[in-house]
Each structure stands twice: as structure tokens, then as C-alpha cells.
Write a structure and sequence with these properties.
By secondary structure, the protein is an alpha/beta fold. It has 5 helices and 5 strands; from the N terminus they run αβαββββααα. Belongs to the peptidase M7 family.
């Protein structure tokens, strides 16, 4: 086999493979482009901003279909204060909109990033599961003060990916019309 034939064959293979590689890269780009961005404001919780940002980071590194960041036109706001028995909580529609209340007393007692990531989970559509182990982010304070896991587990990640697959798909409601 001549060098010329070998070179021509290599170029031919490269020409055939390049569209596949380009197609694969394009699919990754379009998948990433399909991610919904939820804009957040931390201006109401300046004392805890670093923990909120870290909690958002836990979600951003765990899921692809939704990303959270500080930007203009925030639909999700964080505020700090003393909320008594209610403690830290989220008032949200579960679609990336609402207000997350960060409680001073809970932040002094529990893992700060876990609290912010947990409450953000509500804003993304997850419910509490207080009976769950520390490995479940949505077990919240039920896992105790020694729990420092601030990352969603596989089931929580899958739920968010499913819910946010096309932006956020509202829960299906069925009715029978007569």
C-alpha cells in the first residue's frame, strides 16, 4: 500500500467521522441550550448570600434541564429574618417562582448550604420528606443537625430533570367532560 493511498484513506475516514463528531457536539449544545434559567435575587438575604450561591451551585452541578443564577428580572427571591416556628421555608409555586425565607435561628443550628439547597428544591418542585435519611436533601431538618449533605440524591435529581425536561411542565390534570 502506498503512502498516497494510506493518506487518502485516512482523509476519507476523517471526512466520514467529522460530521458524527460535529453532530454529537451540536446535540450537547442544543441540550444545554434547552435548559431553563431561573433568575434569583439574594438582595433580601445579604448575610447568607454565599450560602445561597453555594446551594444554587449544588443544583446547577447536579441537573441539566434547569439552571439557577442571579440575574435581572428575578422570579425567585431569598430573604432573611426570624420566622419562629415556621423556620426557613419556601412560598413557591414549584415552578421557579416565589420567595424563600431563610431563618436566622435555623442557620445558626443546621448546615447553611443544606438549608438553602433544600429550600431551593421546593422552588424547583420537590416536596419535604422529613422521614428520609441525610442522603436525601429533601429530608431537611428531619435528618438532624449533624447532617451536612447539601446535594440532591439520584431520585431527587431525576425528579427535577423529568419535571423540567421542557422548561417546567405543569402537573397533568385529567377531567371527564360529559
Amino acid at each position: 500500500m502506498s503512502v498516497k493511498s494510506l493518506f487518502a484513506g485516512a482523509v476519507g475516514v476523517a471526512v466520514l467521522v467529522m460530521p458524527v463528531i460535529a453532530s454529537s457536539a451540536s446535540a450537547e449544545t442544543s441540550s444545554a441550550a434547552a435548559a431553563k434559567t431561573v433568575c434569583v435575587s439574594t438582595s433580601g438575604a445579604p448575610q447568607f448570600r454565599q450560602y445561597i450561591i453555594a446551594g444554587l451551585g449544588k443544583w446547577n452541578e447536579s441537573v441539566r434541564n434547569v439552571q439557577l443564577k442571579e440575574c435581572a428580572g428575578a422570579t425567585l427571591r431569598y430573604v432573611e429574618g426570624s420566622y419562629g416556628q415556621q423556620g426557613s421555608h419556601a412560598v413557591t409555586n414549584g415552578h421557579g417562582q416565589g420567595t424563600i425565607y431563610i431563618d436566622y435561628q435555623q442557620m445558626a443550628k443546621y448546615d447553611k448550604v443544606r438549608i438553602t439547597a433544600h429550600e431551593t428544591g421546593h422552588a424547583l418542585g420537590l416536596k419535604d420528606h422529613y422521614q428520609g435519611p441525610c442522603s436525601e436533601l429533601m429530608s431537611g431538618g428531619g435528618a438532624g443537625t449533624s447532617c451536612h449533605n447539601a446535594s440532591p440524591n439520584a431520585q431527587e435529581r431525576q425528579s427535577i430533570e423529568r419535571m423540567w425536561a421542557n422548561g417546567y411542565t405543569a402537573p397533568e390534570t385529567w377531567s371527564i367532560q360529559q
